[in-house]
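> example.struct
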């Protein structure tokens, strides 16, 4: 199924139900459908054609949803950009995707001005919030556009989203996701829209992340009301859940911890929550145990996946979060909570050794996944695609782990040095490349170390050039000027030399073991 049909179906079944609540605005499914048509008509008038890339640089707003469905309806490709990225990072993604049109939020207008001259493919810049020199204004364009339905000619296997994720070579990789990448999951796991039921989803996971996109599409197809937050704020989140009687939430572990640690947590009535899904990063066992106690009326689901697999491939179901029963039953459930769960019905998974041999239960190797939802490949990178997807369609997840006798998969580390901070992938090589620009440093290594709040955070281990001096504060200030905030090291260690293997490669495993308790 084409993803544009999610909105078409919901609009046909429950046109008067509220589709989006965003700050002071409310849009029914009928109103959302009209706005999508107007954006689509605008894009067609601007010359956007099937297959063209259309980028979005904005925090979560109703416009992100409108633009996605409009882009999909005209057969173009949606490119959601990380709004935390710096100018050089955005330049790379925009040049790589060759986006012809960019929708941009108010706070990013000056940033876009600073890089626009480096983007020869960019023809249209549309300001979402206010008038700005050299841009078109979103609502003005909407007012002049037709509300007539647009019928897409895009196929189910056509590319619908080009989503950039951190690359192990230091550059973001463009993951190509088709309509089927999302529709197969949604059709298998979401009940279609119902004109009678009243369900609300609170959406705080950013819509440049595959988990946010999946949650958005599931809500639209299910005819649920999407309650949107620009960016996660614990107190605002609790106020929205209480005020809108929200029944479903999707969050990363860091968000859940910030909620239950908030001093005002007990002041809000959160009893309307019936389903809480979490994922995108490892969940500390103590955090989920506390959350289960503090949300007694909610069912919890651990959803594990990655951008390359169009999000969820394994789940730990609600019954494994029910910690009642005998001591033996409790112990078994606690052990399962430490896993990433079992594969979903449309996904095959296995564990493989370095030589490509399948491993039996209990043995540690790389986790492999295969199914109809996995990515088509990496944008303009056949070599990396061939490295990641083998000839039989198995995807190298980059996660090291094992499967137990009951079919539950457990993580035991990363095959790469990728750092996952609060659900965000950070490429150590990218941060290292930036720090090499600091002339006082001889060499540098970025490692991930455990953190109770964020799961992992980057640490910088550096060697200062002979005759130079450098302080941690000086290094941090350099990072502040050149890296997105979530990529910056949270601590700095100086040493005389970095450990290397006989081939000269830095042994990051040794650094992680040495500094994990720092």
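> example.seq
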């Amino acid at each position: 199924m084409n993803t544009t049909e999610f909105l078409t179906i919901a609009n046909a079944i429950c046109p008067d139900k509220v589709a989006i609540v965003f700050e002071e605005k409310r849009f029914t499914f009928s109103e959302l459908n009209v706005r999508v048509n107007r954006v689509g008509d605008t894009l067609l008038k601007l010359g956007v054609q099937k297959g063209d890339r259309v980028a979005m640089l904005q925090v979560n707003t109703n416009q992100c949803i409108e633009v996605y469905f409009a882009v999909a309806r005209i057969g173009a490709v949606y490119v959601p950009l990380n709004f935390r990225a710096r100018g050089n990072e955005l330049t790379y993604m925009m040049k790589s995707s060759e986006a012809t049109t960019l929708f941009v939020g108010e706070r990013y207008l000056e940033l876009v001005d600073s890089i626009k001259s480096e983007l020869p493919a960019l023809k249209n810049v549309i300001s979402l919030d206010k008038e700005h020199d050299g841009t078109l204004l979103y609502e003005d364009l909407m007012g002049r556009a037709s509300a007539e339905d647009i019928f897409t000619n895009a196929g189910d296997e056509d590319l619908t989203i080009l989503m950039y994720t951190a690359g192990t070579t230091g550059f973001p990789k463009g993951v190509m996701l088709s309509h089927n990448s999302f529709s197969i999951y949604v059709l298998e796991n979401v009940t279609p829209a119902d004109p009678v039921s009243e369900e609300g989803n609170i959406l705080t996971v950013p819509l440049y992340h595959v988990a946010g996109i999946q949650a958005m599409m599931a809500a639209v197809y299910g005819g649920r009301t999407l309650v949107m937050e620009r960016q996660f704020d614990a107190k605002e989140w609790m106020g929205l859940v209480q005020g809108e009687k929200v029944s479903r939430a999707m969050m990363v572990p860091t968000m859940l911890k910030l909620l239950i640690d908030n001093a005002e947590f007990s002041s809000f009535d959160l009893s309307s929550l019936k389903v809480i899904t979490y994922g995108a990063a490892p969940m500390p066992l103590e955090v989920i145990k506390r959350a289960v106690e503090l949300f007694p009326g909610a069912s919890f689901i651990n959803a594990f996946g990655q951008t390359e697999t169009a999000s969820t491939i394994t789940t730990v179901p609600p019954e494994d979060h029910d910690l009642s029963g005998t001591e033996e039953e409790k112990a078994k459930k606690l052990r399962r909570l430490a896993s990433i769960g079992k594969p979903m019905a449309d996904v095959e998974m296995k564990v493989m050794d370095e030589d490509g041999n399948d491993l039996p239960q209990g043995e540690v190797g790389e986790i492999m996944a295969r199914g109809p939802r996995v990515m088509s490949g990496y944008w303009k990178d056949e070599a990396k695609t061939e490295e990641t997807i083998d000839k039989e369609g198995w995807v190298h997840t980059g996660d090291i782990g094992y499967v137990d006798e009951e079919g539950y998969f457990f993580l035991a580390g990363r095959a790469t040095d990728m750092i996952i901070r609060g659900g965000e992938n950070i490429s150590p090589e990218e941060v290292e490349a930036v720090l090499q620009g600091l002339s006082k440093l001889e060499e540098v290594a970025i490692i991930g170390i455990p953190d109770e709040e964020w799961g992992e955070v980057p640490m910088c281990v550096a060697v200062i050039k002979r005759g130079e001096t450098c302080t941690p504060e000086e290094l941090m200030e350099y990072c502040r000027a050149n890296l997105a905030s979530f990529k910056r090291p949270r601590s700095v260690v100086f040493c005389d030399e970095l450990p290397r293997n006989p081939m000269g490669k830095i042994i990051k495993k040794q650094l992680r073991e040495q500094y994990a308790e720092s």
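> remarks
Residues 4-231 form a domain with the Rossmann fold fold (CATH 3.40.50.12780).
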